[in-house]
Amino acid sequence: MKKIIFLFIIITPLISFAQQPKMNLKLIGGTNSNSYVYKVEDVKSDFFLGWQLGAGVRVIKRKAFIEFDGVFQNYGTSVNLFEDSILNLDGQLDIRIRALEFPFTMGYVPVKTPFFKWFLYGGLVNKFSLNGRYTFLGEEGKFKPGDFDLHFYNLSARFGTQVDVAMFNFDFNYNIGVTNGIKNKARTNIHNLQFSVGLLF
Q1: CA distance 95 to 134
Q2: How far apart are CA 29 and CA 39, in angstroms?
Q3: Distance from the CA of 8 to the CA of which of 112, 141, 162, 190 falls in 20 to 30 A?
Q4: What pTM was computed for the model?
C-alpha cells in the first residue's frame, strides 16, 4: 500500500506538468503585399509591397493554441508623375504607408513533435494607420492617413498556417478587410499576404 501511495505522489505531478500549457515568445520579420480592390467599374486596384517587424506570444495546450502579436508594417509604391500644365510636376513619387497591427489568432496543431510542429489558424487583425512618408525630387515629407482617405482603424480577418522547425518559425497568412479600406462611399477591400520568419524563445 505504501508503494502505491508513493508511486501516486511521484506520478501525479509529472502528469500535471505534462498537461501544462507551453508558452513561446516570438521575434518576427518578413515581407508583405497589399492590394486595394475598388468595387468601382474601370478603376484598377492599387498594389503595394513592404516589410514587417514585430513580436508575439503563443500558448499551446495539447492540440490547440492561441497567439497575440504586435507588428509594425511598412509598405508602399513608386509613381511616375509626368509634366502636367496644371500641376507642373515631373518626377518619381515614392510613397510609404506605415501601420501597427495587433492580430489575435487561435487554431489547431495537426502535427506536434519535439523538433517539428504544424499549425492551422484563423482570427482577427486590428490595424491602426500611422503617418506615412513620401519622397519627391529628393525632398522627404510626411502625410496623415486622412490625406489619402485612409481610415485610422481597420479590421481584417486572418487565415494562415505556420510551422516550427526547432527554434525557428515560418508563417504564411492571408488577410481580408472586414471594414471599408478607405473613407469613400465605394466599397474597397484590402487583401494582404504576409510571410514571416520568427525566432522562438
Answers
A1: 5
A2: 32
A3: 112
A4: 0.83
